[in-house]
Model the fold of this input.
Amino acid sequence: MDVYQPSGARRKKRARNDEEPALSRERIVATALQLIDEKGLDVFSLRAVAKALGVYPTALYWHVPNRNALVVEVIGHVLSEVVPPRDLPWEPWLRSFITSYRTVIRRHPNVAPLIGVQLLSNASVDLTMVEGVLKKLSEAGYSGEPLVSAYNSVIGTMVGFVTQEFAMVLDNDVEDWMQRMSGIVARIDPDDHPVLTAHKDLMVNRSFILRWENGATAPLDGGFDFYVEVLIAGLKALAPAGDTQAAGVPQ
Done:
């Protein structure tokens, strides 16, 4: 039996559907990232993304085959913002590269564990980023095995500090956790730990280990900037002498 609908209602429904953006990979990825930002990774699923988009979960499979594939797309989208202009000299390029990554993760802190602790993230990397890092290190004088070691140091610096800075915080019992950490600090014995005692006011909730908030609310700006400069200084100090041709960089 047909159910009658007024023609005006039918036209109104069609018009509303016509105004909705078509389902696309880009729209799915943007919605997934928004859900991860708002709800975290524990509740992230294809079903949740489909619900947010107002479609059935099966509609997503035309664009992404499973949750892992969607996670890879989200990571790739986030990392697409971190590569600096290629015409920068190697030092400011690397400094901008690492700093841009932290800036992006600061906007999307729930993504940090996906990149820092899961090899799944490797499938999302744009090889242009890898080539960019290698080229800038080549410009600094690196080639062969030292180039690979320097590359690993750069990526480790970029991901490692930020992953720990934006480590997940407790969803519950935050007050108990804060009181416990405060109690540990209050009981520091100055005889056993004189240097820590002298600096504890500077370190409490502003340094690794002695904190209960992550970088979203208590950023470690000074430590990060120092870390980056240590890396740059180390790369300069250890770089083999030579020009870009000796390092194997195409001219």
About this structure: Residues 144-165 form the longest helix (22 residues). The radius of gyration is 24 Å.
